[in-house]
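It is worth pausing here to work through a concrete case rather than discussing structure prediction in the abstract. The textbook approach is simple: state the sequence, then state the predicted structure, then interpret. We follow exactly that order.
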Amino acid sequence: MSALSVEQAIHGSYQCGPALELAYSEGSVSRKLHEGYVDLRSQAALEPKPAGQELENIQADVSAWLEQEKILELPADQESRIKYYSTFDEAVVRGKVIALVDYLRRNHGHQISSIELDATEKFVEAAFAMYSDEPSADTNVMDDADGSFAFVVPARMSRNDSEYGEEVEPVIPALRYVPKELRAQMMVGLPPFVIDTYKPDENGRHGVLVLAPVFGDMAEDIESTSAKMGIAQANVNAAVNFAHRRYGVEVVGLGATLPSLTLYGKKITNKNVITTTGHGGTAQLIAQTMEAGLQARGVELQSIGVLGMGAIGASVAEVIADRYSEIPVSIYDTSASKAAKVAERNPGRFSVAESDSKLVAENQVVISAITSRFDTAGIAELNGTIVIDDAQPASFDPQAVEALGGTVQWVIGRDAQGIATRTGYDYATMLDPHTDVFGCEAEAASIAAYMNDLRGRGMDEKLVHRIAEKVAIRSAVDASKVRIISALFKKFGIIASEPQAFGRPVVFE
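Step two, the predicted structure:
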């Protein structure tokens, strides 16, 4: 596909105008605080750290201290819990994170590097300073704004997904000494903050990876579904507003948040940004990941099963069925009506499996788009089945699948041209901390890179934004949208990574 075929596929040909000129002032006080924090955390990453039994002993001591001091005790009434999860409060965070730093200095200072503790203190200071910054009256972004896109992510870790606790260690080093199941609670009260930045483009603009303060523990701690949705939606909006106000980003990827949370971005209130769901990039990388696994096994594609018919699963099933029109595709959802509706929309194309276990056991390739953990207990054997797990947190345990004779691959891409290369953060789950990317992450980066490309060709700014809005995905993804994102991935060098899951290479027998 030629360079111009992307926009031709969207909207036809365009007339060009003058290119946009960009200029930024020197960094603000908060940016300098943030840069100082990043320097400290980079140093902290290189420090020798307690491990094994020594680490476990420190964590046990910290757990006992947290319980004795009631530092993580939740408010008893629901109204107070709603406020707890929806308020960004520096005093609350200092009462947890800075109190932890002080406790570690007093009781474990001979075991823990002071740089780890210094970096944690600087993080709290910088996070609130960055979030509190307000632009001057005549603009809606800070004078030192230099962002191009943002990828907004929630916290994957929770009491029930403690294995993801490691992902916070590079960002808030002192949390390494808190048991993993308690780390999310230590973070409640923080505002949206920058986890990492991406490699700058030729104009010096770069992407930012931003945490939206959305935590899985809310599902247990707050009874009202509408209250939970309201908090999560407000906190995602806060993250989008922060990314735009602080960095001036134009494109925001929402792929790490459930579609129902923002109605495919329609509930995002900031009209100065172009949001995209990331589902086009995900669908494209699912196909590439599947093909990489089949190639590694040296087998031809025979059958596909798609598990979960929510917004993402249903869209992916239809895109996959369109792309592999000669291959039988079966679907399953715990809601029989959801699966039936997908089958009815596509007459003769899908078969509906009797159970999730049968779908997994009877298909050569299984694409998982469910939000719960899959129990392999009902399966006797998997004869070379490849599970493509797109769920985050993951829905399949790779070791359990391997024990039955199958393999699990995560949907991970690789940035071959530098448009989505992170400074070094890898979600604690990727083989390459710099160039491995999620498909939804790469979608936002690709749209931003495409806008930059159009400007470089002298296209009028309003037209650039109109084209980007056409490319961005703000509804259920379909095959035509995936074709456009596929063309962008080809243009900007987003490819499938080597097979991996949970940061480990997948070995095919």
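Step three, interpretation. The radius of gyration is 23 Å. Residues 11-25 have pLDDT under 50 and may be disordered.
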